[in-house]
Design brief:
Radius of gyration: 18 Å
Oligomer: single chain
Strand content: 35-45%
Largest sheet: 12 strands, mixed
Shape: globular
Distance between the termini: 11 Å
Helix content: 10-25%
Mean pLDDT: 79
Structural class: alpha+beta
């Protein structure tokens, strides 16, 4: 597996999930009422970006669903997700196996405590802006330079559906599509699913969101013991 693909797997969903957190109360009326076509898509993106820019931190529970030709049956994982602006992200997987994924200081680290092993992907300067977009540290509207975004409305009470199709050459080689489900009352994403070029499907659902909570830098520093085997990779392709 290439280093850039590791970055995609761990960071891509964050870009579209972080905006769902910056929300206090549902709006009294739906500001998308009466809009059609591109104007409706534009309005929805603008609402998400507004909330994303206001977000300083977030903690939530998550459920990950995974389908792959390499798996005999679909797999489900659970855990806790942390975000601290401007660009630190941590996934604490608790079920079925313990694992920690941290993106901070331009390094993506995957730590498996039971195996006493860790993999650190160092992101080169040429990929740093690209990864910041994927890691949710750039506003959602920046994704428009990497994706073509379309929208469908199946009707109430179902959520709005956003489809993000990659247009960037590097992304297209690894990723087929990203799908978002946006609650029509909250006007925020409630689920994200991405399909890789090889057909693997990963879906994330976030629950029990806590917005702008007290988090410190220490939450994103992995303390690895001397008995942990660390592999360092430079993401050059």
């Amino acid at each position: 597996m290439t280093a850039l693909r590791l970055i995609l797997r761990a960071a891509l969903c964050v870009a579209v999930l972080i905006p769902m957190t910056a929300h206090a109360e549902a709006p009294p009326t739906d500001p998308l009422d009466g809009l059609r076509g591109g104007a409706k898509v534009r309005a929805l993106i603008d609402l998400v970006v507004e909330r994303q820019r206001a977000l300083t931190s977030m903690r939530s529970e998550f459920v990950q669903h995974k389908r792959s030709a390499l798996l005999l049956e679909p797999a489900e994982s659970r855990g806790e997700f942390l975000f601290l602006a401007p660009g630190q992200v941590r996934w604490n997987y608790t079920e079925p196996d313990g694992m920690v994924v941290v993106y901070a200081n331009e390094v993506l680290t995957t730590y498996r405590p039971d195996e006493k092993s860790a993999q650190a992907v160092r992101v080169p300067a040429k990929h740093q802006r690209f990864v910041r977009v994927l890691a949710g540290t750039q506003p959602l509207d920046d994704l428009e330079s990497q994706f073509a975004i379309t929208m469908t409305d199946p009707g109430a009470p179902s959520p709005y559906h956003l489809k993000l199709t990659p247009t960037h050459r590097t992304l297209k080689a690894r990723l087929e599509v990203v799908r978002l489900e946006v609650d029509r009352e909250l006007l925020l994403p409630i689920a994200v699913e991405y399909v890789e070029a090889d057909g693997d499907v990963t879906r994330y659902e976030f629950r029990d969101l806590e917005i702008n909570v007290a988090l410190d830098e220490a939450s994103f520093a992995l303390e690895l013991g001397d008995d942990v085997r660390v592999e360092t990779i430079d993401a050059v392709g």
